[in-house]
Every structure is written in C-alpha cells, then in structure tokens.
Amino acid sequence: MSGGLLLHLSAPMQSWGSPSQFGTRLTYPHPTRSGLTGLFACALGLARGSDLGELAALRYTVRVDRPGRLLRDYHTVGGGYPRERTVVTAAGGRRPLKEATLQSERWYLADAAFTVAVTGPAATATAVAEALRRPVWHPYLGRRSCPPAAPVLVGAADDPVAELHRLPLHREPDGKGATEVVFVHDTDPGTGRPPLTQVRDQLPTTGSRRFAHRPCGRPSTRSPPTSTPVPAPPGSPLSPPTPAPDPASPAPPAAGDTAHPENPMTHLTQLHLHPRSREAAADLRNTSHMHQRIMSMYPDALTSGDAARRSLGVLYRIERTPQATTVLVQSTLAADPTVLPDCYATAQQRNLAPLLEWLADGRTVRYRIDASPTRSLRDGTRDAGGRLNRGKPAPLHGKDAIAWWERKAHTAGLNLHDILDIPQEPATGHRATGPIRHTLTRFEGTATITDHQALHTALTNGIGRGLAYGAGLLSIAPHHE
C-alpha cells in the first residue's frame, strides 16, 4: 500500500550539495534526493551508519515555486588560534600558524521556495510524517546553518504529485495569469504527466560518512527541468498564465499543434560554467579554445575535418550575467558533457524537436541572437571566373548593424516588431592561421513568423559569420501578450 506527503521547503538560505572540491562548495538549484533523505533521517533520529533502506523506497517530485538567487559566502576556518589549537591535519598533527586559516566559498540559494511531493510505502510515509511533526533532531535544508522558515510538513495526500498542480505557488502574484513552473522528478513521470527531470544523486545504502578529500564529480547529464504552465486554483490570488519564457529556454508547443515530421532531432545543452574553473576561464579568453572544448563533446570519428561543426550542426552562444556564465550549445547529435574536465561546468540537456514542430506562419515569437554583422570591402579584383572577389569583411555597428539584422531576419522568415541591439564582448583568440576577432552584437525582441521553413533552416544552420566562435545561434520562444 502506498502513501504520499507534501512538503514545503523555504528559508532565507538553503544549499543542496553538488559535486565540489574543498575550497568551493556548490549547490544545486533544487532539493536533491540525498538531501531530502538526510532531512528525514535527521527528523527520525537515525544515527550515522544506520540502514536507510526504507527511505530509499521513497520517490520525489519537486516543484520550484521560487528559484531564488545564488549567494556566495566567503568562509574561513581555524585562524587566530595558537598552534596547539589549529585545524587538525590528515596525519593527526596541527597545521602550522602560517597555514592555519582555511578559506572556502559556500554557495547558497537565497529566498528560494519548493513544494515537494513524496510517494512510497504507506508505513514509511506515515513514519516520516510523524517525525516531521515531532523531530528528534531539528531538520535543516541542506546545511545546518539553513533552518526552514516554516513547518516542513504540509500534510498527507493520496496523490501528492497531482496536488502539486492544484496547490497555490509560494510566490507573489504577477497579474499575468498562469505561471511557468519548473518540476524536477527522480523517476519517469509516466503517461499523462508533464515531462519532468531527474533529481540529481543516488541514495547511499547506509548513512555512514567518511572524512576524506572530496574530488569534483563529473558534470550532470540529466535532462533539464521542463517549464509547465500550472493553473492556480479558483479564487487564488495567483490566477493564471505565464511570463514569457526566456529565449534561451524555448517552451514546448501547445497541445494539438501540427507537427513537422521532416524536422531532424536537435538538442540544446546548457553548460553552467564553474566560476573557479581555470579551464573554463581560459576557454572564455580564447574563442578557439572554446570551440575545441565544445567539439570535444562529440565522437572523434565525427569531429575530424573542416566540416565537422557544420556536419553536426554545432552552434553556441555565451550568456553572461553578474551571477554566472552559461554556454548554450545546439547540435543535431546530443553532446556528451561527461568528457569535460572535472568542475568545468554542470550540464542540462533538452530536445528542441517540440519547438521546431511548433513553428507555423503567423505565430509570434521572442528571439535572441549574438551575431557578427559585417560587410565586404571589395578591392576590385576578380576571381578566375570573372566574379568580383568579396574582399575583407568589415564589422558593422549602430544603424548599419540593425539594417544588417533586418535583412537577415527577413531572409530567415521573421517580420520584426522591435529590435534591441546590445554590443557584446568580441570573440577573440588565436589559431594556427593567425588571430581571431569577431565583433558581436546581441539582437533581441519580438517578431512574427512569415516563413516557418526558412526559420527552421536559420535555427538549425545559424546566421552570419563566426558560427564556430559563438555567433549565429538564433533562439526563439513563443511570445505571450
């Protein structure tokens, strides 16, 4: 007999451990399986080394009500003490005074909120519910410095996953109706459920803990969270629909849309670069190195020769914010992020086929592209066939760059409503034939599809020059007024 629980996890800070090295402790953007198991074990009063077999039978679905924001805590340990009280070394001695202070960075989710559906054997669910009402040890959200801001247990439910689609969201109403919500699942959600993702890690068979060096794990290769519109219950202040999705994260088509069976499989990989990775920092400084790094995620047999990038349809764009740097990689073959160096990035992947099938003339979209607008400076010379040579390309700026994008967008089957042009850091680097430099401008706004087949071609093939160096990847998403 199965049972179910609903949990509410919110706090000023929470942290759900991801693969980390000692100096930097990262967090996943949602509660993890091992973190939730530890929370239950704490409430039950299970000592380290206890058998966690009953808790292993529980399954989790996480609804991200508020994603929060990343917060970095600069942390020191062991400084200011005499030699006999400094941090103990692995050999059992004490650290010398000059090396007594250990420095680390602890990353947290600030002001995040999650609603969690727990399913499993009824006896286990009942025991966990009672423990959460009267915990043996106080529960915390990932780290002991992160106590919950409200009672964790919401209550029991026969079908807690279905209840996630009815419970109000823990966020301020935006007045736009339905709200885009991310779900995270640890098993196949099955027929009739929205496509969800996997909770990150595996549950250990016992709660034993070893104190040793923590090597960085490989990047996660799970599918990314899928945004699913969830209507609020009648009378709720959080009445219906969604803020327009980010162009970097296209939403799936609405039910009943006409499919285009000729569309090839297209994949999007999001690489969230580790802020302290030396390899990632070096790749960001040299666009040629970044190109090589991205191509390393595909089989060697397919990435030899000059046409490798074109044959795999590889395009990428670098998204920079004050908090993080993300590389979006699009290709016709799914990338393998596990080949990247340790602590290089965490990865999320999705299939873009639903978006390509959704394309139809007359639909309104939001768009974004980092392009390298240029014009050729013809020198009057001709080739062997008598045609004028194109000459050296010259970068375009301002009104000239906007006019270039208007022409390209028209060819790509888009009627632009508005254009926001934002200069980006140029793509620079070195290769065997000489230096590389592409001036980049980000264009974004809204548009109407006038030729969905031409748009499909532009989405998969890219637009303009510098396609191997972070330019030309066009992203779109359905636009909601």
What does this entry look like structurally?
This protein has 481 residues and is α+β, with helices and mostly antiparallel strands. The protein folds into two domains: 2-230, Alpha-Beta Plaits; 267-478, 2-Layer Sandwich (Alpha-Beta Plaits). The protein contains ten helices and 21 strands. The protein has helices spanning 33-44, 53-56, 122-133, 160-163, 278-285, 287-295, 308-312, 353-358, 398-411, 452-461, and strands at 2-14, 24-25, 59-66, 69-77, 102-121, 153-156, 179-185, 226-230, 267-273, 315-320, 325-331, 345-351, 364-371, 374-377, 392-395, 414-416, 420-423, 427-431, 434-438, 441-449, 474-478. The strands form five sheets. Strands 1, 2, 3, 4, 5, 6, 7 and 8 form an eight-stranded mixed β-sheet that branches. Strands 13, 16, 17, 20 and 21 form a five-stranded antiparallel β-sheet that branches. A four-stranded antiparallel β-sheet has the order 10-11-9-12, with no helix packed on it. Helix 5 (278-285) packs across helix 6 (287-295). The longest helix has 14 residues, at 398-411. It is globular, with a radius of gyration of 26 Å. The chain starts with a strand and ends with a strand. The model is unreliable at 189-263 (pLDDT under 50).
Low-pLDDT stretches: 189-263
Q: Number of DSSP strands?
A: 21
How many domain regions? 2
CATH topology of the largest domain: Alpha-Beta Plaits
- The proportion of residues forming helix, as a percent range, comes to 10-25%
Keywords:
481 residues; alpha+beta; Alpha-Beta Plaits; eight-stranded mixed β-sheet; 10 helices; 21 strands
